[in-house]
# Entry
Amino acid sequence: MHPMLKPALRRAWRDRQTVQFGITPAQAVVVSPVDPATGHFLELLDGTQGLPILYERARALNMGPGQVDELVQRLAAAGVVDDPTAGGATADALRNRAGTLERLRPDLASLSLIHPEPGAAAGRLAARRAMRVQVRGAGRVGATVAALLAGAGVGQVDVLDGGVVRPDDVTPGGLPERSVGERRSTAARHLVRQAAPGGPPRQGRHPDTGPPAFSLIVVAPREGLDVYAPNTADAEDWVRAGIPHLYTGVVETTGVVGPLVLPGGTGCAGCLSLARTERDPGWPRLLAQWRSGRQRTAVPACDLALATAVAGLAAGHALAFLDGDLPASAGSRWEASLPQLDWRSQPVGPHRDCFCGAVGNTRGEQVSGASGPQDTMAG
# Structure
């Protein structure tokens, strides 16, 4: 092990014997009592030295190997210490791609706070390169989501959309102006390649199994109605195939993120449709009219700042799921409307009559964590 105090955690002394790592309540850890020798030893934990060398240097501070081991173990348990050599073979392969790692260092630092075990952050960041995500839609939201996922290290991001890029598809974080007139699928592939740090990795393919399965589908249709009232036929196919999928987009002046559907575990588009029809029996008739060709608007509303915020939140929820966590969009839809932009959550529970069979499954339940600084004794 090469212990390293996590660079993402700022350090400050509360008093002569108490040091705090981290600023916000979500990350703050208080360590005490810290005597002068321990304080000096903390400066040695920079990840460049293994434990045998640290034992030698600790002797000059009158600290024995047992004290060093106990201190490092307690700091690691508190989430303060990382190991830049840990994470396994995939993490080592990522470290060998110097240019890629330099681009992803801020992401690595963030993951080190979310997944505190030494080496866990590098392992998760490396695992992203083996994942395949499909983004359905290359408009203001979908193209930006695809670029963000590729830029965050997801190895293969496929974008599915038809038609050609129009001037109103162009966004600062998505399709560029030079892509106007190109096929959307072609322009989106170029965008993803440019966003990927170090270029996308070469994808493995087994002769019998074909390309890797999708880890996630992000449904980001350019037509906002299709995210507000998702297509249940597509949802049924994905649920039966066991593919997790996340809905996101903008309809009129409302941004939508969720639900993240875990097949057989959380409410799906079918559940959403059935519940809405129960609350409003006239909903199917309204929906049929809105979906008719005569009702489609020539220029759907899609505020640029709102679309960018929605894409960022959707990408964050997608990455949390890919990294093994359960984001708040699992079994829930998050919405924000202009001009207040007050994000609010609406549960999307399993429906007893839905094909998905998620009724009675508690997979989408979450447990909230503590909100204050964590205290740990490391004297």
Residues 364-373 have pLDDT under 50 and may be disordered. The two ends are 21 Å apart (CA to CA). The domain at 4-84 is CATH 3.90.930 (Outer Surface Protein A; domain 3).
